[in-house]
Amino acid sequence: MAPLVPSSQPWVEKYRPRQVKDVAHQEEVVRVLTNTLETADLPHMLFYGPPGTGKTTTALAIAYQLYGPELYKSRVLELNASDERGINVVRTKIKDFAAVAVGSARKGGYPCPPYKIIILDEADSMTEDAQNALRRTMETYSKVTRFFFICNYISRIIEPLASRCAKFRFKPLSEDVMSNRILHICNEEGLTLDAQALSTLSAISQGDLRRAITYLQSAARLFGSSISSSDLISVSGAIPEDIVKSLLVACKSGEFDVANKEVSNIIADGYPVSQLLSQFLDVIVNADDIPDEHKARICRKLGEADKCLVDGADEYLQLLDMASETIRALFNIPQGLVF
Amino acid sequence: MLWVDKHRPKTLDKVIVHEQVAQNLKKFVAEQDCPHLLFYGPPGSGKKTLIMALIKQMFGAGVEKVKMENKTWKIDTGTRTFDLELAMLSSSHHLEMNPSDAGFQDRYVVQEVIKEMAKSRPIDAKGKRAFKVLVLNEVDKLSREAQHSLRRTMEKYSASCRLILCCNSSSKVTEAVRSRCLNVRVNAPTEDQIVQVLEFIGKKENLQLPFGFAAWIAAQSNRNLRRAILFFETCKVQQYPFSANQVAPPLDWEQYVSEIATEILSEQSPKRLYSVRQKFYELLVNCIPPESILKKLLTELMKKLDSDLKHEVCRWAAHYEHKMRLGSKAIFHLEAFVAKFMSIYKEFLCAAFG
Prior knowledge:
Largest interface: A-B, 70 and 74 residues
Strand content of chain B: 5-15%
Strand order of the largest sheet of chain B: 2-3-4-5-6-1-7
Strand order of the largest sheet of chain A: 2-3-4-1-5
CATH class of the largest domain in chain A: Alpha Beta
Structural class of chain A: alpha/beta
Helix content of chain A: 55-70%
Oligomer: heterodimer
CATH superfamily of the largest domain in chain A: P-loop containing nucleotide triphosphate hydrolases
Radius of gyration of chain B: 24 Å
Order of helices and strands of chain B: HHEHEEEHEHEHEHHHHHHHH
CATH topology of the largest domain in chain A: Rossmann fold
Number of helices of chain A: 15
Shape of chain B: globular
Number of strands of chain B: 7
Structural class of chain B: alpha/beta
Helix content of chain B: 40-55%
Number of helices of chain B: 14
Number of strands of chain A: 7
CATH architecture of the largest domain in chain A: 3-Layer(aba) Sandwich
Order of helices and strands of chain A: HHEHEHEHEHEHEHHEHHHHHH
C-alpha cells in the first residue's frame, strides 16, 4: 500500500480517542467501563444518544483495550448499517460468531477476558425481525459473547433487547467540553481560533463533536491556519442571518408577489430549505413584535412543511406555502376562502 | 458540439461564474488531496462543471479518457443472489455513476462499488494520489437505506477513495452524510453573470450582439445558465444577425402548460377537466417530470390571480405535490389540483360577480 499523504486522514479519525478514559463528557459510561478493564466483567451494553457524542468511539476503544491489536480481529465482530444485517445474517453470521468459545489467554498486558464482543452499530436501522431473532441468541451464548448495541433512537430498539442490556445515554457535549477538545486539536494542528469563532463553532455544531471537528478541518483547508467565525459559517452550510431576515421582511410586507420573489431567489441561490426552516423558526420565536397566537400558527406550518420535505416534497412549493401562511398569520387572514 | 459543452470551462482558472468557489477548490489541487465533497445547487448552476474541472486539475488529462461501461454486479444477500446492472463512466482516476438508477436496490451498488474501489487501489510511485474519486450524481434521490449505508462506508474507506456527491437539494440528503462532507453551495448565476458568459461566448464565436440582447436572454432563462446558452444557440440557428426584437419560441412543453392554464381559467367544468386530462397525459408520456408541470402550471395561474386566491392556490399546490411524492401515479394528483383550483376559482367568481 502506498504511504498516505499525512493530511488525507480526516481529523475525526485522527483524534478519535483510543482509550476509554479519553472519551469526553460521558462520565458514567467511562466509570463503568474503566471498572470493566480491571475486573474484566462486562454486561451487554446499549449506547444511545444523538450523533457525534462518542458512542462508536467508546465501543471501539473498550474492545481495543480489552484485547489489544493482535486478538482484536478474532474477538470482535463489528457490523454496521453498511453491512447486510437482515434476519439471515443474524441466524448465520452472528450466531456462528457468537457460538465459538474462547479461552482467556492473557497476552501483552491486555486483560483478554474469555468472551467475544459483537458491536452492532446503528442498530436502530435493523429490522424488527432481525432484532427478535437476536433475543435468544443473546441469552444462549451470554457466557462467551457480549453484545454492544449502538443507536440514535432507543425507541427503535425492541423492548426485549433493551431490557437485556445495560443502557447508557450519551448526552450532547456541553460547550466547555467541546471547546476544550477543539482547542486541543487546534494546538496539535497549529491553528489559531479566536474566542468568537470558538463559540460560533459550538453553536453551529449543537453538541455534535464530530460535526464541529469536520467543520474545523474544512475551514482549515479552505482558509488556512487562522480561522474566523464567518469562515466557519460558510463551510457549515448555515444560512446567513440577513437572508432569513429578508424573508421575514418580505412576509411582513403582506404582498404575496414580494414573498414569491424572495422565495425564488433563495431557491436559486441553492440554500437548503430544511436548514432555512429551522433558522426561520429561531427568528420567529425570538421576534418581539409578533403576538403569540400568530407565532403558534407559523410554527405549526413550519412543522408541516418540514415533514413534507422529509417525505421528499418540492422545496420551492413548500417554502412558498410556508411564506404564504406566514403572511396570512401576520395579517390575521383565516385559512380558506371567506366571502 | 453544442456550445454548452464547447465553452464549458476546463480548468478552475477559467471559471467565470463561481470564482470564489473555484479559488477554494484550487487549494485542494495544490494540496493534491481533498475531503469528501457535497455539491448542491439548482439545475444549470455549474456543479458538474466545477467537479470535472477539479478532478481534471487534480489528476491531469488522464481523466478525460473515459470509457462508458455497463457493469454487472453479483449481489449476494444471503437469501438470494441477483445481478444488478448499472451504467458508469470511468477513467483510471475516477468513476462516475448515478446510483439512484438502480431504484430500490441502490444501496447494494453504493456498498459494492466503494468496497471494490478500496480493494483495487491505484499506486503511485511518489506515494501521491493514492486514492480514486467516486462521483455520485443525484444523491438526493438515493433511498434512505443507501444513505445510511454510506455513513460508515465513507469513514472506513476514506484512505482509498474520495466521494464527490452532487445533488439539487441538500434537504433530502441525511444529516449524517452531510456532516461527513465539506458542503459546497453552488448558487444559480445572477442575470448579470449570465450576460457576462453570453458575451464571452459571443466573442469566441465572433458574433455581433445587439445591445440588450444578452440581457433579454438572461431574463428568459430563470437563472439557469445551461438553458441560457442553449437558448442563445437556438437564436443563432434561427436568425443571424440577431435583431433586437427577435422572438424565439419558449420550450414547447412550457407553451403547452400555459395553454392548459388559459383553458382552466376560461371555463371550470367537468368537461374542461376531461379535456385537460388528455393534455396532462401527453405531457407525462413525453417524460416531463410531473412536479415541473405542477410548478409551471402554478406560475402560469398565479399571473392572473387575485392575491387572496394566490395564498389558497399555492397552499393546495404544495399539498398536492406532497401527495404526489407519496403516491405513485402522478396524473391523479395533477388532476386533483386542477379540480381543486376550478372549485376555488368558481366559488370566487360566484362571490365576486354573483
